[in-house]
Amino acid sequence: MADDTSADVWLVVGLGNPGPSYSGHRHNVGHLVVDELARRMGSGFRAHKTGRADVVEGRFGAPGSAAPRVVLAKARTYMNESGGAIKALATFYKVPADRIIAIHDELDIDFGTLRSKLGGGDNGHNGLKSMRSSLGTGDFYRVRAGIGRPPGRQDVADFVLSNYSGVERKELPFQVDSAADAVESLVTDGLEKTQQRFNS
Predict the structure, then answer these.
(1) Which of 7, 20, 30, 54 lies closest to 142 in space, CA to CA?
(2) What is d(CA 175, CA 190) in angstroms, rounded to the nearest whole number?
């Protein structure tokens, strides 16, 4: 791989909780999206030398293309402690906050829809809160995968830490695919074009 300046590297983080017991939860949609991006790159996740995350390094686009270098990451810590692992990766790869993309579930967006933005609040999301605390800023990109609000009086925590419904599971691959497309678009085409294409 050719030498790269640090400004050329993007860190793409899929927020979620580690381990198979959490893998199907709404809170783990970020993991599903980076898994799809890794599949597109033709690579599997491996432990990073920091010991706190699993990563894939590569580029979006055809082999040999001049596309920016990308590091896909999944923290090995629980969601509410993921910021430390992400900060360690950002330091290791010399990635500034405005070259970090966090993919996460979003309660205030209907299931099946997406939004992308730069910066903003945490909206009670523990992964975003941990990232902001560890990075010292919230000025990173977000690809927000809508999960909607819990039905009836179901507790929000129970809702995000539960599996998708049967109907949702049929639609989930389309949402994951679109979110992966949105991440690629952010890296290659920028925020404005990505918002025009994917924000619904």
Answers:
(1) 30
(2) 20
- Write out pLDDT tens, residues 147-189: 999 988 899 999 999 999 999 999 999 999 999 999 999 999 9
Ranges of beta strands (E only) in the chain are 9-14, 46-47, 53-59, 69-75, 100-106, 114-118, 141-146
Residue 5 confidence (pLDDT):
43
All residues at 6 or more sequence positions from 139 whose CB lies less than 8 Å from its CB, including other chains: 97, 98, 118, 119
Main-chain phi, psi angles of 119, to 5 degrees: 75, -165
User: Taken in order 92, 98, 104, 107, is the CA torsion positive or negative?
Assistant: positive
Instruction: Render the burial of 111-149: b for 16+ CB within 10 Å, e for the rest.
Output: bbbbbbeeeeeeeebbbbbbbbebbeebebbbbbbbbbe
Portion of the chain with pLDDT greater than 90, in percent = 86
Mean per-residue pLDDT, 48-74 = 88
Q: What is the mean pLDDT of residues 97-121?
A: 96
Contacts of 52 (CB under 8 A, 6+ apart): 75, 76, 77, 84, 85, 88, 89
- Annotation says 27 is catalytic: yes
Q: At what angle do helices 126-135 and 82-93 cross, to 10 degrees?
A: 40
Interval 124-145 mean pLDDT: 96
Q: Which of 25, 27, 31, 48 does the annotation list as catalytic?
A: 27
